[in-house]
Each structure stands twice: as C-alpha cells, then as structure tokens.
Write a structure and sequence with these properties.
- The complex is a heterotetramer, with 2 copies of chain A (about 220 residues) and 2 copies of chain B (about 220 residues).
- Helices cover about 20% and strands about 25% of the residues of chain A.
- Chain A is an alpha/beta fold.
- In chain A, the strands form 2 sheets. In chain A, strands 1, 2, 3, 4, 8, 9, 10 and 11 form an 8-stranded mixed beta sheet that branches. A 3-stranded antiparallel beta sheet of chain A has the order 5-7-6.
- In chain A, α2 (about 35-45) packs parallel to α3 and α5 packs across α6 (about 175-180).
- Chain A is globular and about 50 Å long.
- Chain B has a single domain (about 10-215), classed as Glutaconate Coenzyme A-transferase (3-Layer(aba) Sandwich).
- Chain B is about 15% helix and about 25% strand.
- In chain B, α3 (about 90-100) crosses α4 (about 135-140).
- The longest helix of chain B is centred in the N-terminal third of the chain and has 10 residues, at about 10-20.
- The radius of gyration of chain B is 17 Å and the shape is globular.
- The chains are: A alpha/beta (about 220), B alpha/beta (about 220).
- Chains in contact: A-B, A-C, A-D, B-C, C-D.
- The interface of A and D includes residues 111, 115, 181 and 201 of A.
- β5 of chain A pairs antiparallel with β5 (about 115-120) of chain C, so a sheet runs across the interface.
C-alpha cells in the first residue's frame, strides 16, 4: 500500500543534507510551509540554496534560516532593502540571484516538464540580460533561460491523501504546484488529511505523483 | 520650473481617471501603488476581470474586516475577495496569462517613461545593492496594453516623461499610455501625444514640466 | 454584462475565414467538438490548416473537411495509412506535418504562455530532426521548437458559464485547455450551461479568459 | 536459423512476465499492443499507478460493458476506469509527466532494439509515405526507465535484438531492458545481458536467434 504520510517532522526531513537546493512554496503569508521550514532549521543543514518568491519576511522561519547563516544562496524575485537577506548580501555573506517572477515560475515548470531550455522576452532589454545569451525571435530580443530544479521542495496544502494528492484553497497554491514538479523530493505539510478517493479527481490540484512525503500539521499548531 | 496655477490630481483621482477608460470585459492586472486603487473605481456592474499574479482571476474588492479570508490575498498582500465566476490558478499558469498576451491591460506605476514607450519602474540605480524585480518585467512584455499611472514629476519637480530613461529599464517600447496627475498622454510613433489635460492647464505649462517633446492630439 | 454564449452556429463561426489555422480539440472520440466541426464544414472555409492529434477518423467531420478538399495542411501526431489524409497526402493534395504528441502539446502551451521558443530532446535523435536546428544541452541533443498558434480553436466542454469558464469530465479535456490558450478565437461547445458562480472556482478547468465564444449543444443533438 | 525445441511465450505470458517485475508505487505508462495487456497482470492490491497520455493518472481496468463511460478512454482508445485516488490532467501536463522524468517506467513495443539501447518502433522505413509518431518519442526520452516487450524475432525469424537498428529510430540509448518471448535481457554498457530465459532454452540457442552479441549475467 502506498502511504506517503510520514509520522514525524524527523521523518519528513530525513535525508535533507548540507548544500541542498530547497524550493520553498508560498507567496507573502499564504501557502508557506511554516512547520516544514522550522523543521529544516532544526536539521542544522547549511550551505543551502533557497528558491522562493522573496527573501524571508520578518519573524519567518526563512528569515531565521538566513540569520543563522544556513543559506549560501538565495534565488528569488525581490529582497526588501531592510531585510536580513539584504544585509547578509551587502556583507558578502549571501549570494543573491534576483529573477523576474514569471521567469522563476517558468524555470520551475521547465524543470518539472523536462524542457532543457527556453527563450523569453522577459528581462531581455534590461540589466538582468548583461552577459547572458540572447536571441532575436520574430523581431523580439529574448533571453535563454534554463530549468531550475530543487533537491527538495517544501509545500503547504489544505488537504492531502496517502497517495500524496494535494488540494489547495483559494490563493494557497501559488508556487506550490510547480515546485512539487520541479523537485526530486517534494514534501507537503497539510492542514487536513483525506481518505483515498475522498478528494474528487477534478478537484485534485497536485497529483500525488509529484509528491513524495506528506506531514499532517493541523491548523493552528505551528505559527512562525 | 514654473509653479502650477492649478491643483494636480491626488492618488485617488488619478486612479478614478484610469478606471473611467477600462471597458467591460477586459482582463486587467494592476501593479502595486496607485494602480491597485483603480479597482475601487470600477463599478461592480461593469464586469472587468482583475487578475492577480499569485493566481487569481476575477478578483473582487477588499472584504469587510470580519469576513477576511487569510488564504485570499492579492499580489500586494492585501486581503481581497473572489467574484462569482472567478477562479484560482497556480503561479506558472498565472504568468502564462501575463506573458502569453491574455491581459487586455496592465497598469503599472513607474519612475520614468520615455517617449518611445520604455518604462523604468524597478530600480533607482544600476548600482542598487539589492534589486526588487518582482513580476513587472513579465507583465510589461506580455500584456496587450501597458498603461502607466504616476505623478507627472518627482517631488522635487524633475520630469518623469523623458526622452530617455535614466533609471534601469523594466522593458523597452511597451508603454501605450500614461496617466499623470496633470494629463493623459498616448505613446505614439511620433512620441507623447496629449489626450487630456487638467482644466486650466495649458499645453505650454504641461510641456514645461515634461522632458520629452509633447504633441497635440 | 459579459456574455460569451452565442445563440447559433452561424454566430459561433462568424469571421472564420479561408486560410485560417484551426486548432481542433479532442483525442480519439473524446472531447471532439463535433458540432462546431460540422459548422466549420458548412462555412465553406477552405485552405485551412488543421492542428489535431490525428487525421480525421472515418465518418468524422474532420474527415469530411479533408475529403471536401478544404484543408491545405494538417499538423498532427499520426495519420493512419488507410485514411483519407494519407491518400490526399500521397496525391500531393495535402501538406502533412507529423510531430511528436508531447511536442505538439508543448508547442501549443508555448503559444499560450508566451514562450517564443524552447528546446526538447524529443525527436532530436530521429528523422524528424533532419535539417532542423539542434543544440546539445547538458550532454543531450535537443531540437529547437517554436510555438504553434491558432487563429481559431474549436473545443468541447461538459459545462460552461457566460464568462466562458469551462469544466470537462473525465478524459474529455485532453488538448482542449492548451488549445484554448493558444488561439486568438477559442470557441467551445458545451453539453450543459451553468449560471455564473455555479461552477466552483476550484473545479473550473479552463478559465473563461481563454475562451471567446460558447455554444450550447445539448448531449445527443449532434453525432458525426 | 535453427528451429526452437521449446514453445515461445504468447502475448499474455509476455505481459505477465513484465508485470511480475513492476513494484508497488511506480508510475507506469504502457504503450499500445502487448504493453497494454500488462496492467491486467498487476494485482489491484499492488498499488501501481498507470498513466495514460490523454490525461489520466491512476487508470484502472476495463469496465464491464454496462458500466462503460464514453468519456473515459486510454491512449489506445479503449474504455477504462479510474482508481480511487486517480485524477485527470490536460495533455500538456500529461506530457510534462512523460517528458519531465516523472514516469518510473514506460513499456513500449518495438520493431528493433540495439545493444546500445536504441529503439525503433514508429516506422518500418524512412521512406514510408505517412508517419505514425504519436507519443512514443516523448515517452522514450522522458521516462526514468524504458523497457521494451516484443517478440525475439520477426515472424520470418529475423532478429530484432540487433547491433544497429535498420528501422528509423524513436530515440537513442534509452532502453534499459527487453522482455521477449524467449528471454529477459538488460541493456548494459557491455551490451545485452541475459537475465532470464525460457526453461529448456540454451544460451547458444538464444544467441542463434539474436543479431547482437549476448552476455551472460
């Protein structure tokens, strides 16, 4: 019997090593796998590469990872000037790769969909294109972009079953579905569990084939 | 630069002015800042679909405090609602909408716009230590129409409608129209064309506050 | 009030001209917009380019389009040797472009997602790569592929509302969602209509922003 | 070529032999022909997830005639069912699964397989007037493991396990294992390695029916 539920945070984090590339779902406060992030802090893993929409918000577990010096490189779409990420970068203690948000989503999707490279006009006319390979396609300058894969993805879902099928609510999905596809080991925390078959086939957002582990973290148990 | 004899529009009035020009049926993305205010000035019975990068199609107005849904925010992290007929998508599909030419309109704020339609809205200098790119570049290259809403000049009175942007570009040759606190200007092959001005403002006075050459409609 | 429902087949077909590129949803017998295809035959439009998973099945409206000589070019993933498409091709009366099925889906998706070109290893080591641009990426030979756009897409859905939101059932969606994204004018026939708001946000498969017209064709009205 | 003293496996027996080697939890795509039969030999309580290119994850067995759902077919156009826990996706997502390395296994039929793992399964000649590509090339390059199930020789007795494919290739260096009606062979850097043979068949007799050089396990 396939059972992707893991009984503990330790089991959820098993095998995540130093230097891992970790894809971190969520946008602003929504869809962030807070408990798993706190679990990642507790593993002590360091030299991590974190891929997320932004540098960690004040008081977040991602900020804590950064402030503990566990992150070697942050790939994201913006960093607030007053944030820890910005300070670490300015002190030379953090590598930063800032990329457009659509390009981030598409590079993750390319990793999940087996696209070895693609072109996009996004950013081609900007500073971000400096030193990069470009090509004019139909009269439009384009940048060549490569897939962005993760060793691990940390995700948040609303409901999940033992096959790893995930359902999100409202704007909770954001980066979670593409990150699930783009990682070797996709780990989801879920507010609620469901029996196999309880999640309707046309309601499942992320098919379980993209998810390797599920941890049940009931609502309200973890903030932070 | 000469003092203006008239009172420029405030942020709400600028948003209201843009809202007037958005017809029913359009799919519209609103950037952070003044653009976000525009939705409040589109009457509900004029069915305009608002898209939010974080995966919302058919975004509705802010909920009353007691009805806030913590899972339902827009790209500016504000609590919003979903209209009947709206739906949720993931980030890659959401940017497929933005980059794939499905937005009828995107309205962004900017530091500068050039008379060839270049927009600079993400960094004040190429040397800024940390960059805030977000989704603006994707929106700017992908939308069917890009409108910019911004003050006509900086607080110090320096022009923002320029011959050539001095700030790092977001995208080249993409802006179709600019709404400022003084005027509405189309970007045409010949440059900025004044479509509308505040009552009492002369073309010459507007030109005096503009770096790029203005054209009469 | 947005209302994408059209009252008649004539209104559904309005503006489809000669030489149009028509994306045709469906796979085998499922998800085929039979009524719309029959309507397309009746418009008399010719010199069409048809994009579909396969050449028309025996007795299908697509086969009828082909046999009436309305199709200049067929882009698909296979053609049965005994089919009309194969005979027309061998007589020099039809252009054929046969491409791998995943590449077809991805080229449609690229058109819908604003990707000006992408690389794929699919077909790179085969006859299909002859004379084409290739590039080795991470030690793997890849083909450069371009988006496949349609002037028109003909789709079949199970339920639809006046915003053009579509819901499919079981394996009905297949190519329909990506073709909706990839066409300037996406026209869906639907078995059932729904009031706005009746289709749950998390059940909508194709958001109405990808659909321009909807024609109500109740179950059983059209076969063929 | 020498007559065989033993009776080769039939199509069902070949499918059954492959099914034995598929462990619980794998995501598996089965090509048309013999591969499609494999699902029937995987017991339901061994949870193997079958993927169909037309957008099914967790495909179940054929339904009894009176329960046929006309909207639920597999990539071979056969009526199927959905298992509890299964779901539906569109064609681009379905091939994202195939091309993105998410299939643990794909089993295809073939005309020929070479000892470097090349597979030819879509055309009998480069000059065929019409081509039947389908989804095989996508599956072949994208799956974690590609297994081939086919008769060891053609009806005329010509070998199909060859040093070099004579038919147009589907993909190069991708086949990991071949199940024939005589044997099971892994494709390793040194070439075909015989893992299993029909009882009563000698290595030499198998070699006599094979173009490529065989290796003992």
């Amino acid at each position: 019997m396939i059972d992707k539920f893991v009984p503990s945070m330790a089991a959820a984090m098993e095998g995540i090593g130093d230097s891992a590339t970790v894809l971190l779902g969520g946008f602003a406060d929504v869809g962030i796998p807070r408990a798993l992030l706190a679990g990642l802090v507790d593993t002590g893993a360091h030299d991590l590469t974190i891929v997320a929409v932004a540098g960690g918000r004040e008081g977040s577990a991602n900020e804590r990872l950064l402030s503990l010096g566990r992150v070697r490189k942050l790939i994201c779409t913006f960093v607030r000037p007053a944030s820890i990420a910005a300070r670490l970068f300015q002190r030379g203690e953090l590598e930063l790769e800032i990329i457009p948000q659509g390009t981030l989503a598409e590079r993750l999707r390319a990793a999940g969909a087996g696209i070895p490279a693609f072109y996009t006009p996004t950013g081609a006319d900007t500073l971000l294109a400096e030193g990069r390979e470009t090509r004019e396609i139909n009269g439009r300058l384009c940048l060549l972009e490569y897939p962005l894969r993760g060793d691990v993805a940390l995700l948040e879902a609303w409901r999940a079953d033992r096959w790893g099928n995930l359902v999100y609510r409202e704007a909770q999905q954001n980066f979670n579905p593409v990150m699930a596809m783009a990682a070797d080991l996709a780990i989801a925390q879920t507010y609620h569990t469901a029996e196999l078959g309880e999640l309707e086939p046309n309601v499942i957002d992320t098919p379980g084939v993209f998810v390797q582990r599920v941890l049940h973290v009931p609502e309200g148990e973890i903030h932070g | 630069m000469a003092e203006l004899a008239i009172k420029p529009l405030g942020r709400e009035a600028m948003a209201e002015r843009v809202a007037r020009d958005i017809p029913e049926g359009w799919l519209v993305n609103l950037g952070i800042g003044i653009p976000t205010l525009i939705a409040d000035f589109v009457p509900e019975d004029r069915e305009v679909l608002f898209h939010s990068e974080n995966g919302i199609i058919g975004m509705g107005k802010a909920p009353p405090k007691e009805q806030i849904n913590p899972f339902l925010i827009n790209a500016s992290s504000q609590h919003v609602t979903l209209r009947q007929g709206g739906s949720y998508i993931h980030h890659a599909d959401s940017f497929a909408i933005a980059r794939g030419g499905h937005l009828d309109l995107c309205v962004l704020g900017a530091f500068e716009v050039s008379d060839s339609g270049d927009i600079a809205n993400w960094a004040r200098s190429a040397d800024e230590p940390v960059k805030q790119v977000g989704g603006a570049m994707d929106l700017a290259i992908g939308t069917k129409r890009l409108w910019v809403v911004m003050e006509h000049t900086t607080k110090e009175g320096a022009p923002r409608l320029v011959q050539r942007c001095s700030y790092p570009l977001t995208a080249k040759r993409v802006v179709k129209r600019v709404y400022t606190n003084l005027a509405v200007l189309d970007v045409e092959p010949r440059g900025f064309v004044v479509r509308d001005m505040l009552p009492g403002l002369s073309f010459e006075a507007l030109q005096a506050h503009t770096d790029a050459r203005l054209h009469q409609a």
